[in-house]
Amino acid sequence: MEYWSDGSEESSSLKVVENGKLLPCSQSPRCGCIVTDWSEVWLGCYDIQGTRIAIYNFPKKDWDEETVIEKRDAYVQAMVYCNGCVVISLRGQTYNMLDIFDAATHRKLQEHTLPDLVFSIACSSSQLYFGLASGSMKSCLHTELLHRPANHWTCCKDGSLPIRAMVCMRDDLWVAAGPKIFVYATTDWTCKKELQADRENELNEVFLMDSCDDDAKVWTVCTMTGGLVTGWKGVAMTADVDSRYDCGAQVRRLADSLSSSPSDRMQDETISCLTSAGDLIWVGTGIGAVLVWNTVTHQLCSLFHPFENYVRCLLSFNSVQKSASYSHLTPQPKSMLVVGAGKRKGNREQSSQTQGEAGGSASSSSIITVWRA
Hints:
Strand order of the largest sheet: 1-27-26-25-24
Number of helices: 3
Mean pLDDT: 81
Largest sheet: 5 strands, mixed
Distance between the termini: 15 Å
Shape: globular
Structural class: mainly beta
Low-confidence stretches: 1-12, 320-327, 347-363
Radius of gyration: 20 Å
Number of strands: 30
């Protein structure tokens, strides 16, 4: 079944938990992480003035305004939650840094100054992996994060191309560098497989990657594929020919119905983010639409359009690190947090207050919604 919505309705399979909560800052969200133990979401937002970390508390159903984290002249690149800490990579004007915050108190515990920008971070049950702009890859134990200087972290591999994305798949680490995907065994750092991300275009580079342990799948998006999501078999380390989802074609149909101008079509079809949740893959686009594909039937099961501009961030509550308080997480697992720019007119709770708080039109403000599958 294919379901189309403007984001103001609910379907039998997807229901709104939180609809249209305005971010407390004007900066655009770029990345985020779910802090399981404290039922929070941390969002890294930035503009030309710098970075602000916005923290949403689910039990309170509101933003935490008392402990605002700001970083002037630095821009958030990646963030991850592990072992009670939030780890944030920042690009500075004169140097790059990795800041570590206590998730409970929001207090900064450590700042590592780095010669290279950390483009991507992956987290396993015991290790953190850092992909650098220089092409190098480093790792450290969770327990070493606060007590071992960054220049003493293990150097796993050296390469020549920036590591744009990484994901853990069981005992392997999938690494995207340029047009190649490398699969490394994290036990001895041997390269188990080298894959061409796009066989039809050898210059097409991977810029988004996600994984799902439940069905041993890895998902990638390249820069020049016109809205195509590709699935890979995690165990066999081969492309799954059935798991290629043409989001661009679906977005073009939506753009036609909205009379989108030809000059906007390239932006419309851009895939801005993706994440997996069980047997679903969620895809955010430049037109503000979210597509949900069933990875078993390989059918588009939902398409809703809650935003006027880019979908900025998708966070799955299925993929969070398991913890003692996981069962008490609000909202419950099988939920998805969606962050986008500009709530579309006609959606519920759109009001003049929303526009006033944003300091401008609704299209310039960012909104979070939570959907439960």
